Automatic annotation (TrEMBL):
SUPFAM superfamilies: Winged helix' DNA-binding domain. InterPro entries: ArsR-like_HTH (IPR011991), HTH_ArsR_DNA-bd_dom (IPR001845), WH-like_DNA-bd_sf (IPR036388), WH_DNA-bd_sf (IPR036390). SMART domains: HTH_ARSR. It comes from the Bacteria. Residues 1-88 form the HTH arsR-type domain. It holds the Pfam family HTH_20. It comes from Qipengyuania gaetbuli. Gene3D superfamilies: Winged helix-like DNA-binding domain superfamily/Winged helix DNA-binding domain. This is Metalloregulator ArsR/SmtB family transcription factor.
């Protein structure tokens, strides 16, 4: 799951996942359109997403098409987010951390 968190930590990779979520089967060229980075940079980001299993790819002739693989995200949500479903939002809004204790000052 560490690979998933690392992959999601980058805003460009999250943008690529958003685009694949909206329209799967995009090529590297299509994913690179309208991004302020090179095609090679997009390819490196895709490699990170593929190693985290967030993106699956398949060959289509000379093209490689990329698709979102939602399973790692679903596993993450089930493991980490489900436990907060029943927490009242008012309790979260009124959360007050315990005051930090300062070490006693000794002259």
């Amino acid at each position: 799951m560490t690979d998933t968190f690392v992959a999601l930590s980058d805003p460009t990779r999250r943008l690529l996942l958003d685009r694949l979520s909206e329209e799967g089967g995009l090529t590297l060229s299509e994913l690179s359109e309208e991004l302020p980075i090179t095609r090679q940079a997009v390819a490196k980001h895709l490699a990170v997403l593929e190693s985290a299993e967030l993106v699956a790819s398949e060959r289509d002739g000379r093209c490689k098409r990329h698709y979102l693989n939602p399973m790692p995200l679903a596993k993450m949500a089930k493991r980490w987010l489900v436990r907060f479903e029943d927490v009242p939002l008012g309790a979260l809004a009124g959360y007050h951390a315990a005051p930090a204790t300062r070490p006693a000052h000794h002259p």
